[in-house]
Amino acid sequence: MDRDEILEKILMVVIVILVIVVGFLVVEGRKKDEQIKQVVSVSNKIIENVKYMELTIGDAEAREIRYKPAVAVFDESKLNVMEDMINTGEKYEFENPTGFDDIPMAYLYKDDGEIIVISAIDNFEDDEEKGNFIIYQTNKSEVKRIYKVEDEVGEFIEKLYNERYDDEILLYYGYELQTSTGLQALMDMPLNDDMTERYMGKYNQYSKNKKLKQIEVKDYSETYEGYFVVEGNDHIAISEDYNPIPRQSKKLKRVPDKIKESLSKFDKVEVEEIDLNGDKELEYIAVGSTEDTSDDGKIMSKVVLYNKDYKTIGTLASWDATEDLKYLPEEVVLSLDDVVYFDINNDNKMEILMELPAYETSLINIFRYDNNVLYGEKDYEVSLKP
Q1: Greatest Cα-to-Cα distance within the chain, rounded to the nearest angstrom
Q2: How many structural domains comprise the chain?
């Protein structure tokens, strides 16, 4: 082999090596580009995995600053639209946010228990800034973040709210309840023609575990100037025609040992079982209470939700009424009579509605147990103090 042939072969080998190296670099570059794109894509996900959301808007007809009853939305397509709209957002810093109103309008419940509160401001404009903005805050942090988004999120929320608001009315002793989780007071409704007309009509009325009858609301009672409650509703009623009690609760004759042990400091324990989600697995609601009226005695009670294995899901409410005696006509403790299981949004999953005493009013705490997460105002401590 002469010198030229040797050089030619060396050149061919070098070319082959270069091709391999270049090919490798191109492939690695593409991989890095894909990784960068994935990172960017992930970083742009302001929110995802929303399980359901609750919406509310301001009540322009009210004589004071007030919000309309919240409504819950479980429609996956609507949840996806909301996620997509929020995920167009770019973090924004306002130097001078004059007139930037902070009005909660949407509560987004994620499947890991995180709750995102979104306030939407459409077509905001001042001397320095303009556009569509949202204020974002989570129940896991007190920090509020502002994002500039492409779409009018506020308009979307208001439109969706009005669609859901017309769907169903839930009444509790003549007061409208929000079809949402959490604590709410039984409040008189603002008196105006639109509101009174809204509540007139037929309702299906229920007590615990059974349907009572169909009633027709034809009138209202003015409670004080400018406000009213609906007449003719003795317990809980809905305007829609579906079965809100798809499964029955049952009071246990014998308290399971694990529940008795967890509430051992109470003199009396009562338990009901119910399949809240329709998954054929029972949940247990237990009330522990002590009514010792002696000088050094205690008057206290506690309501706890347990899973099928009697493990604590969460405390719904507790009440040490010892200090409240001067506000009470007689000794009172929480009981199973305060608890109702009711599907408030026609999804075959029963929420827990618990009536709680409060100073000069009553409260309703609505809980939803879904995907091993308990939504609602947990660990609520009852008090009658002003």
Answers
A1: 117
A2: 3
Please state, in angstroms and rounded to a whole number, the distance separating the CA atoms of residues 340 and 208. Answer: 6
SS3 string, 328-385, reads CCCCCCCCHHHEEEECCCCCCCCEEEEEEEECCEEEEEEEEEECCEEECCCCEECCCC
Whole-angstrom CA distances from 276 to 81, 156, 283, 352 are 29, 31, 7, 8
Alpha helix ranges (H) inside the chain: 3-43, 76-86, 153-165, 193-199, 257-262
In terms of domains, do 181 and 90 share one? Answer: no
Q: Do 353 and 339 form a contact (C-beta atoms < 8 A)?
A: yes
CA angle 166, 50, 87 (to 5 degrees): 100
Range of the domain at 156: 50-162
Structure-token pair, residue 25: 């670099």
Last residue of a domain, one of 208, 238, 268: 238
- One domain for residues 149 and 109: yes
Q: Residues 185, 268: one domain? A: no
Pairing of strands 339-342, 250-251: unpaired
Q: For helices 76-86 and 153-165, what crossing angle results, to 10°?
A: 160
- Domain-ending residue, one of 147, 162, 177: 162
Least confident of 63-67, 149-153, 318-322: 63-67
Report pTM: 0.70
Q: What is the pLDDT of residues 179-226, one digit of tens each?
A: 888 888 887 777 766 667 778 889 999 988 889 889 888 888 888 777
* 282 class by beta-carbon count within 10 Å (0-12 exposed, 13-18 middle, 19+ buried): middle
Q: Read off the pLDDT band of 40 (50, 70, 90).
A: very low
Contacts with 184 (C-beta within 8 Å, 6 or more apart), sequence order: 177, 178, 363, 364, 365, 366
Instruction: Please name every residue paired with 176 in a beta bridge, in sequence order, or none if there are none.
Output: 171
Task: Identify whether 213 is part of a domain.
Answer: yes
pLDDT of amino acid 329: 55
Tokens standing for residue 48: 């995802």
Q: Are strands 339-342 and 351-358 parallel, antiparallel or unpaired?
A: antiparallel
Note whether 127 and 56 are same-domain residues: yes
